[in-house]
Amino acid sequence: MLKHKFISKLSMLFAATFTVLLPMHAQEREPATTGYARMTVTLRVQGDNKRVPTVTRNDVVVTQSKKSLQVIGWTPASGSRAGLDLFVLLDDASDSSLGSHLDDLRSFITAQPQSTAVGVGYMRNGTVQIAQNFTTDHILAAKALRLPLASTGAYASPYLSLIDLIKRWPENGNRREVVMITDGIDRFRSENRFSGPRFISSDVDSASRAAQRTGTIVDSIYVRGVGRQARNYWEVTNGQNGIAKLSDATGGESYFLGTQGPVSLAPYLEDVQRSLDNQYLLEFHALPGKNAGPQYINLNTPVAGVELDSADSVWVDAK
């Protein structure tokens, strides 16, 4: 009997302790204050199957620091949400052989839907020379294409030029996509000259951050450039590594055929078009940092054979 009373008192003591500790434990597990985040996501299918299966909001898994985030919006970029600003950005340091690919670019531009505004510009001296501002007159935009100057210029950096373009981009809530045609070589940075293998310009990260902050996706296509560096295997490889890293960080694709110039741009542009036709607008609650800035996130889906491509970080305001 005494033993039974002791066990009962001990059980009551455990229960009281658990009752006190439970709210404290629950409070520690409450989610931190979240901030609104939005990004464009491209659905890609794996293998030879080009049919994109249906992916619903419940099929989208967003994590940040291994914590699941609440998805509040998953809207196809079609109908009233189809608005797209597409900028074709060419490097004036490209070889004149780029001229043989201009018809491919013209066909790509004129085939865009009316919901897409197209701009055309040329990278030179760390800035962008605008040949045509954003317009839904696609024939007018196609006419703005010209041969590159085939000159490196004084401050030849495709990454500084991209930053310049992003700073001048009008705010209208549309999706943003850049088709960037360049050899990726940063001729402005002096350390690039004798850098050797596996060097990536420091401006690649700066351009990536600018693009991620504004939700700009960058697709890059390698073409041959001019000058001594364009004939150097290491510099060519470094340039390709630079544009590949830029595209990957912003949710785009990078296209090149070894160190040779492309036979045709048409297959690359067709793949870009497939991406544009299979994009969604994702909205979710992200965990902010102490200061406004990029927060790394990861996207996944249980739908077999589908890959969700996006920038590797999203801009979130401070707490």
* Percent of sequence in beta strands: 25-35%
* Quantity of strands, as a count: 15
Main β-sheet, spatial strand arrangement: 7-6-5-8-9-10
Order of helices and strands: HEEEEEHEEHHEHEHEHEEEEE
- Under CATH at level 1, the class of the largest domain stands as Alpha Beta
**Coarse shape:** globular
Helix content: 25-40%
- Arithmetic mean of pLDDT: 86
Keywords:
single chain, alpha/beta, Rossmann fold, 2 domains, 6-stranded mixed sheet, 28% strand, disordered N terminus
Describe the structure.
Helices cover 29% and strands 28% of the residues. It is an alpha/beta fold and 319 residues long. It has two domains: 35-78 and 279-316, Elongation Factor Tu (Ef-tu), domain 3 (Beta Barrel), CATH 2.40.30; 83-276, Rossmann fold, CATH 3.40.50.410. Strands 7-6-5-8-9-10 form a six-stranded mixed sheet. A four-stranded antiparallel sheet has the order 4-11-1-14, with no helix packed on it. The protein is globular, with a radius of gyration of 25 Å. The N and C termini lie far apart (58 Å). Mean pLDDT is 86; it is low at 1-31.
